[in-house]
Design goal:
Helix content is 22%, strand content 34%. The protein is of the alpha/beta class and 186 residues long. The chain has two domains: 132 residues, no CATH class; 36 residues, no CATH class. A hairpin with a 6-residue loop joins β6 and β7. The chain is elongated and about 95 Å long. The termini are far apart. The relative contact order is 0.15. About 4% of the residues have low confidence. Bound molecules: zinc ion (2 copies). One zinc ion (ZN) binds next to loops.
Length: 186
């Protein structure tokens, strides 16, 4: 039987309380959360909101699933303008019931840091789950618009805003050829 527990949204509630979940097979806990997350060390802080659930699966393990939303500031890889982009990410993590009991007793767990980065003896860290999920959503080459024209390589004008009169300089290889041609003509 699946029992449900409704948790009121609380700002800055960043750990999912799993105390009831751990001890009751079939039990599901829900939480809405909202907080500020730092995406990487010394990196950008972003305001995030999302929701998460923790389910006791057959008394064997706890499955934590959720979704997080954030608006991040990115620098366009072509025109270097800073722009805002909405990100949305899903996360999922699981931890054996036995592991929770080991953590409660202060024992070292086999799965090591991967588990302890997220779980402690009675909760899951929604801050860290959100951070990990958002970081992998960040684009490798951010673009302010798909058809961003970028900067002029000669004068640095932002070609999205105005045009410039720069001409690509003549390729020296071609001018050498031209000299050669002239020589043949004469
Ligand atoms: Zn751009
Ligand atoms: Zn130019």
């Amino acid at each position: 039987m699946v029992k449900h527990q409704k948790v009121q949204p609380a700002p800055h509630f960043v750990r999912l309380d799993l105390r009831k979940v751990i001890n009751h097979p079939g039990y599901v806990a829900f939480a809405k959360f909202e907080t500020d997350v730092q995406l990487w060390e010394d990196g950008q802080w972003v305001h995030v909101h999302g929701e998460a659930s923790g389910t006791n699966v057959d008394g064997r393990y706890v499955l934590v699933k959720g979704k997080v939303f954030a608006t991040v500031e990115l620098e366009c890889s072509r025109c270097l303008n800073v722009f805002e982009q909405e990100l949305e990410a899903n996360f999922e993590a699981e931890c054996d019931i036995r592991t929770f009991h080991m953590l409660a007793e202060g024992l070292t767990v086999d799965e090591g840091e991967e588990i302890t980065a997220i779980f402690d003896s009675n909760s899951a860290d929604l801050w860290e789950l959100s951070r990990q999920a958002l970081v992998v959503q960040l684009p490798m080459r951010p673009l302010c618009h798909e058809d961003c024209k970028g900067l002029c390589p000669y004068c640095g004008t932002n070609l999205n805003e105005k045009t410039c009169n720069c001409q690509p300089p003549a390729d020296p290889r071609w001018s050498a050829l031209e000299v050669l041609m002239q020589r043949f003509k004469s």
